[in-house]
Design goal:
Helix content: 25-40%
Order of helices and strands: EEEHEEHEHEEHHEHEHEEH
Bound molecules: adenosine-5'-triphosphate, magnesium ion
Distance between the termini: 11 Å
Number of helices: 8
Number of domains: 2
CATH superfamily of the largest domain: P-loop containing nucleotide triphosphate hydrolases
Length: 280
């Protein structure tokens, strides 16, 4: 059995009446732990995600960020801890289960089919059909709805008939995010959506994510290693170190310098003591 987290003091803001703590919490986790054999990936993760908020997860390689997101999207089961959706405890048995609760994930490899067009990818496995039992795929309708939705969320692609393999990395990521949010998903999990993208491509995805949160009320968790991206994209930042949240601040309450200093001091500490925190 996993022991309870031995959480150190977390650098959290003091709540005020007008602060974020008073906003709607759509997703909350309490004491999520996970180990893989001898490796303890998560030691008790507590987070809160508010309505319309972009929460950034920062942390070194192997800190446990992806494991946490895989638990939130139903891909992995936690060893202990609770997930609360709108204050109700939920237990996800699969990705489909989490999806049915409105949680969608976009992984780095995107899961798009490069040889299919933009509109075919948007409706993949959720095709619109007509003709009753004969069920012909209604390409015209899907094309029209795809255009409307991409326009609504301001995603700019040359044509909905373009094959995805002809698109840039940023455009592909935007289509993957559009696919995830086109249905009822109100919570979106993005694991390194900007990895290996140039400045212009990143800007496209950053604008889309901001628009989804601010204009369309999606609540979004983003993992990214690039602090500049995170400061541009997020409302709040949580640092995960050795499977625990060690820092929780709104972006306007912290700075690039503070975050960098935190990570550097963690690095120095590891060098001094040896990185021996393999067990709880
Ligand atoms: N399926 C698995 N089997 C065994 N160990 C795993 C598995 N998945 C993750 N781990 C281990 O759990 C720890 C956390 O990994 P995780 O992928 O969550 O880190 P991360 O914070 O996402 O890192 P990165 O920034 O490199 O993506 C690591 O030590 C990793 O080796
Ligand atoms: Mg990862």
């Amino acid at each position: 059995m996993s022991a309870p987290s031995e959480s150190g003091p977390v650098d959290r803001p003091v709540p005020t009446a007008a602060s974020d703590s008073s906003r709607d919490v759509v997703l909350k986790t309490e004491g999520i732990t996970k180990r893989f054999g001898a490796v303890v990936a998560l030691r008790g993760i507590d987070i809160e995600l508010h309505r319309g908020e972009v929460l950034g997860l920062v942390g070194d390689n192997g800190a446990g960020k992806s494991t946490f997101v895989k638990i939130l999207c139903g891909f992995l089961r936690p060893d202990s801890g609770r997930i609360l959706l709108h204050s109700e405890e939920v237990k996800f048995h699969s990705v489909t289960d989490a999806r049915a609760h409105g949680i969608e994930t976009v992984y780095q490899d995107l899961a798009l089919v490069p040889q299919l067009t933009v509109h075919q990818n948007l409706f993949l496995n959720r095709e619109i059909t007509f003709g009753g039992p004969l069920a012909f795929v209604d390409n015209r309708k899907m094309r029209k709805l795809a255009r409307q939705y991409l326009d609504a969320i301001k995603v700019n692609v040359p044509s909905v008939d373009a094959e995805v393999e002809q698109l840039s990395g940023g455009q592909r990521q935007a289509i993957a995010i559009a696919r995830a949010t086109r249905q009822d998903a109100k919570i979106l999990l993005l694991d390194e959506p900007l990895a290996a993208m140039g400045a212009k491509e990143s800007a496209l995805v950053i604008d889309l994510v901001k628009d989804l949160s601010r204009r369309r009320d999606h609540s979004i968790i983003v993992i990214d290693h690039n602090y500049t991206h995170l400061f541009e994209l997020c409302d709040r930042l949580n640092v995960i170190q050795h499977g625990r949240v060690t820092f929780d601040k709104a972006v306007h309450e912290t700075s690039l310098e503070e975050l960098t200093a935190l990570m550097v001091s963690e690095y120095r500490r590891q060098v001094q003591v040896g990185d021996g925190e393999d067990d709880i």
